[in-house]
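Example record

One chain of 790 residues, shown exactly as stored in the release files.
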Amino acid sequence: MKKEIKSIIYVDALFLALFIFFWFSLPKPLFNTPTSFVIEASNGELLSASIAKDGQWRFPVSDSVPEKFAKCIITFEDKRFYHHFGVDLVAVARASVQNIKAKSVASGASTLSMQVIRLSRKRQRSLLQKIAEMWMATRLEMTYSKDEILALYAANAPFGSNVVGLEAASWRYYGRAPEQLSWGEMATLAVLPNSPSLVHPGKNATKLIIKRNNLLDKLVEAKFIDRSTAQLSKAEPIPTAPLALPQHAPHLLNRFKDEIKQLGEPSTKITSTIDYDLQLELNRVAAQYHQKFSANGINNLSALILSVADGKVVGYVGNCYLPQLKEMESHVDMIRAPRSPGSTLKPILYASMINDGFILPKTLIPDVPTQIGGYSPMNFDLGYDGAIPADRALSRSLNIPAVKMLQQYKYERFYDKLKKLQFSTLNKPADHYGLSLILGGSEVTMWDLSKAYLGMARTLNHYNTYQGKYNSADYAAPYYVSNGKSTEENIEQTSQLDHGSIWATFNAMEEVMRPGDEGLWQQFSSSQRVAWKTGTSFGFRDAWSVGLTPKYVVCVWVGNADGEGRPGLTGIEAAAPLMFDIFRLLPSSKWFEMPKTKLKKIVVCKQSGYKASKTCETKVVQWVPPVGEKTTLCPYHKLVHLDATESYQVNNQCYSISQMKHKGWFVLPPTMEYYYKAKNADYRTLPPFMEGCQNENMSTMEMIYPKPNAMVYIPLEIDGNRGKAIFNAAHRSANATIHWHIDEQYIGTTKNYHQMAVSPAPGKHVLTLTDDNGERLLQVFTVLNKEKEN
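Predicted structure tokens for this chain:
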């Protein structure tokens, strides 16, 4: 009895061991071969693909197999595929009889399940190997469904040369997706894994045609197709030379390669958010502009289109892809490359200053020659307006007002704002950039720049959605994978920029203007309202244009990847036309809705744009963010005392108070006035003081250059002699005479137009100006010894 129990235990243990061995005999993963990186458009069309690491064109396993291929391959390879358990015993018996009679291998009995095992093992086939394949094929059928086994076979079968898998073969031989192939084309591919060596351009064509036609006849017999379809299919040509795969978004494909771990994608194939038809049009337009630019030595450009509604990337051209021309450096994805942003950050500063109560939309900003600690910004046109409304300075992209605004706002505060908006390339402290931060002194990527404007547009679009509150997720990064993780809503009371500030900024950016002849401003033709901004980096190395509507953000960069500057490489001339042509590809939309509950009406001085004071002559009502109440009153309207004829200024020392007239007068500081009145014919200068009256409170003179405590270089002329510096002053009186002294030594007199060419010795000096009324202006400056400085 004990022996029987022991025997039973031994037998059970043996069966258990065999079962465990059987269960774990199937390797995981079944296939460990590298696959091609593949990126599809949102509609499933192939955008780009790259060869796998082992040099094979091998796409990842698809979820399903086209019905035509399933019928073709089952008819050709395994008629009883849906009825056996991995091993076709009927086929094994038939093959055994035929092989014994022929005394050689005359027929095979491999099922598709067995072939999947063989493809995964890649070993020479012996009798023992065939038995092992049967064993593992049976195990395979216990884990995978029939459709999954078909998909494994279709993805890993050899199709000749370095082509593996149905999808890669379909694109390499026919230039189309498998789902789009005809019966004749699918039958051709179905017979190839049986004899992949048949596909060689110009060779074995007859054998391949015979095998294909035989399969078509079998499909007729199986009643999968009719005779006429078979006849038409037999007339189709067979593939010859392999075709190149589409490269409609090669830079996005490379980006996916680099970010696959970060994205958490399990497969090397993704369906992207790219709009297929839009991408093709974007490539076409980009190629046209590239052809034009390359004639001027401008080799690279990039364009990015984002959907405001959901943050999707719908168009992505990282560069004009010309791999055959290595000198073009077209492989560089300029959407990810750090570059100088030129003036493209100015709208963010404008919005920040309104948001934080520093200015109102039309506040006058000084536009005069400026020197700040040795830093002398210049406007692109080298001119000055004296003073200009903030929104106009933004639309004209003037540099000096932007620097003046940043000086007021503080570059440290603006740096922190950019960091909160997730500009990833600001990797040095704020002091490293200083005031040049607003003129392209930092580096940004097109991705980060577009993301910031996307966040602003989404915030304004969601004004009603969140009932005046803010969703911090609006500033989340754009995404290009269709199943990308959506950021959860995080509703807050405040945001980086409020609705009213963004509204004011977009309205200022909407002035679709460009410089024309003789400094005039002409409009770009556009079928829709677009808020936009251009940028040009120092040395004409980068040309930018970024624009937005309630539906789309479009960003364009033009330049050379190696940083070489080129004449004419400006945002307005190179990047803006391309951006507007891209907008013409996009559907129009209504303008942003006015966030009325985030705006209030306040009385503003029409001339200065400041909150109106009692002395302001002309007042207007404007919609501004409530924080605008914090801004200062107009500093440029003074209460002046005039004689009865209003021809002279007077005071109680020289004129009867009862006869005085008191008026509010728009008065700019002398330097601002000097330039402002030249461009504003309606500007009224103050009347002179009546004889006998003293001007005690108001400055009449101001140095334009040099500024107080300035460091001055005296240049050397071509002949080697020491040159001269041009000093410039402004006086309120148009007919004033100014006497110039340096270190109490008289050097000359000027009238009306006050400039003096001087060449003081190196060292510290005191400049003294006096006018005929005895008004004095003292200024200290230092002339640098250039040789010692060097």
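Notes: The mean pLDDT is 86.
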